[in-house]
Amino acid sequence: MCGIAGLYCRDERVDLGRLHHMQRLMRHRGPHDEGAVLIDRSGAVITMGGPDTPREAFASGLRFAPGRQDGAVRDASFQIGLAHRRLAIVDLGPTGHQPMCDGEGRLWITYNGEIYNHVELRDELKRGGATFVGTSDTEVILAAYRAWGADCLSRLNGMFAFALWDGGSQKLFCARDRLGVKPFYYQWDGSRFAFASEPRALVLTQPQRIQARLAAVRDLVALDWVDHDTHTFFDGLVSLAPGHSLTLGRDGLSIRRWWTLDPDARATGSTAEWEARFRDLFTDAVRIRLRADVEVGACLSGGTDSSAVVTTAARQLERPMHAFTVAYEEGPAFDERPFMRSVIEASGATSHLVVPDGRDFWTVFDRIVESQAEPTAGPGVYSQWKVMDLAHGSGLRVLLDGQGGDEILAGYFRYLPLRLRDLLATGDVGSFVRDLGGVAQRLGLVHTFALAFEPWLPAALVRPLRRAFGQGKDRVLGEDLRGREIESPGPPAGWGTAVRAQQVFDATQRLLPSLLRYEDRNSMAFGIETRLPFLDYRVVEFAFSLPDEQKLSGTTTKSILRRALADRIPQRVLERRDKMGFETPTDLWLRGREAGELRRRLLTPGALHAWVNPDAMRERLAEFAAGRNLGLQVWRWLSLEAWAREYVVADPRVIERAQPDYTHPGLHLNYEQVQQRIEQETVGAA
């Protein structure tokens, strides 16, 4: 996992100063190496390193080594600039340096991620005549593109975001993995294209001040939505959608979907065969995610998903796995140590535990806001940050995690009344009656009935129910957001059942995109790569092809996981029905010792008051202080206020025109010096 950035200019030269600062702002994503390449319109190339580039990379003699110049540079009109920050995990030496080119120097790539099946692909490509100088998966992508073109994407099993310059076609080809585990943000104005792994690298380096995108602010305040489409909270900054590729050249920019879930896919076989198939796929997903030239650990939360990951990985390792966990002293609801101990005992893993007391809450909160660069929807990011900080202190660079299990295996409780709805729709009244009591006991009778019977309820009743469950968020909209149409997108049609449609919705829009964004920023803030076995595309496609009853049984969620891995996961964990992510006692802190700072941040006049009505917010804060369950809404206001202060109001651009740190034989490069050198060489040649 790394940080990538780049610039493409159709009619003018790229701004090396901006490219350098984009890269510098992502140093945390890749502390072990850095590099950049400039390519002019004739195909001439200049490669550069920097202070963090190892000496061995400069001395390697490889075609993509920093400090080389290939071809006669006739002018300083470089059309393309690619930059890279490296977190070294596979092929730790100079042969893994980036940007990297193929043997002919026609293809150049800057890439972030891991291709877990790179060993198998390498063997296949070798049989076709490909040669390799190292063992990195980056080199495999180049060879795969050379062999299969854009169709190579369907052969990659992994998480990735990359930009590849094809000197033959004079086009930039960019792609993002199927589920969007790795980020890719970009700006395009019709002639200039800029991309990076994080919004900060783009927002803080552009010449003009960027504006907040009010539609995104409205969606957060009124609907609790973040990351539900390709737009960001910054005007003019978008992300490449998961499972999509982008091609850019003289004829413009085009985007193509290269992967999507199939609504017509249906698994065939028996329950026993499905359990065996799931067990085999998941085990192999873990196996290939243990491939690394550094040690691999895991996050452990005490739920079934992370327990499945840790116990499965432990069976495949020759030494105990390091597992990193968080717990709190504020009560049993926030302390999962009994469940974690069961997993540690079953797996033989070495436990690492952090117990935050919240006294550093505001310091960590502000660091999270800076790192995320967009508002967050809930306090789970705090616990995750603490786990990554703990792992960083141990020196590990790679962690497995259970992210994605709830979305692909129907792990959220709200799927239960949707299952009741589907039973009614198919006329299975007996099963409906059998399961109704248990679901209502878990979620409440009104909530259960509202969700189960919504298609048959009159609109006049549905609207007030939605407002009630939404805690009146639309009534707190501030002046800048009033009068804007608020339309909450819903699950897609054509998926057969309400459960399947909601799962697809959660996995592609409602939940998973934001969770993946949080995980990427939190882990990369500490130079850690997280790998997600549940999001192996083979596991995902199989899970979505299963009948709903294989995932939901009565009041039991993720049923097939509990059955298929019953011999691995401790019984105490398997029987849990209350686990829902990293529980964090922020509500207690914000009602207690941090209440004063909470009110100061939210009630001091500022950008937030144009988006959230201060009088309504003051009323909600009083209700929150009295114990009403408004913690998520309060968190979102806090996150929005801090984001606006950090990125919108303060206008914190860090554009500098100082000399970049890039090095090339004999000189530090900026464009003026490049131009002078070219002019000198041209005069000398004449």
TrEMBL record:
<keyword id="KW-0436">Ligase</keyword>
<dbReference type="Pfam" id="PF13537">
    <property type="entry name" value="GATase_7"/>
</dbReference>
<comment type="similarity">
    <text>Belongs to the asparagine synthetase family.</text>
</comment>
<dbReference type="InterPro" id="IPR001962">
    <property type="entry name" value="Asn_synthase"/>
</dbReference>
<keyword id="KW-0067">ATP-binding</keyword>
<feature type="domain" description="Glutamine amidotransferase type-2">
    <location>
        <begin position="2"/>
        <end position="251"/>
    </location>
</feature>
<protein>
    <recommendedName>
        <fullName>asparagine synthase (glutamine-hydrolyzing)</fullName>
        <ecNumber>6.3.5.4</ecNumber>
    </recommendedName>
</protein>
<dbReference type="InterPro" id="IPR017932">
    <property type="entry name" value="GATase_2_dom"/>
</dbReference>
<dbReference type="InterPro" id="IPR006426">
    <property type="entry name" value="Asn_synth_AEB"/>
</dbReference>
<keyword id="KW-0315">Glutamine amidotransferase</keyword>
<dbReference type="Pfam" id="PF00733">
    <property type="entry name" value="Asn_synthase"/>
</dbReference>
<dbReference type="InterPro" id="IPR029055">
    <property type="entry name" value="Ntn_hydrolases_N"/>
</dbReference>
<dbReference type="GO" id="GO:0005829">
    <property type="term" value="C:cytosol"/>
</dbReference>
<feature type="binding site">
    <location>
        <position position="326"/>
    </location>
    <ligand>
        <name>ATP</name>
    </ligand>
</feature>
<comment type="pathway">
    <text>Amino-acid biosynthesis; L-asparagine biosynthesis; L-asparagine from L-aspartate (L-Gln route): step 1/1.</text>
</comment>
<dbReference type="GO" id="GO:0006529">
    <property type="term" value="P:asparagine biosynthetic process"/>
</dbReference>
<dbReference type="InterPro" id="IPR051786">
    <property type="entry name" value="ASN_synthetase/amidase"/>
</dbReference>
<dbReference type="GO" id="GO:0004066">
    <property type="term" value="F:asparagine synthase (glutamine-hydrolyzing) activity"/>
</dbReference>
<feature type="binding site">
    <location>
        <position position="137"/>
    </location>
    <ligand>
        <name>L-glutamine</name>
    </ligand>
</feature>
<keyword id="KW-0547">Nucleotide-binding</keyword>
<dbReference type="InterPro" id="IPR014729">
    <property type="entry name" value="Rossmann-like_a/b/a_fold"/>
</dbReference>
<dbReference type="InterPro" id="IPR033738">
    <property type="entry name" value="AsnB_N"/>
</dbReference>
<dbReference type="GO" id="GO:0005524">
    <property type="term" value="F:ATP binding"/>
</dbReference>
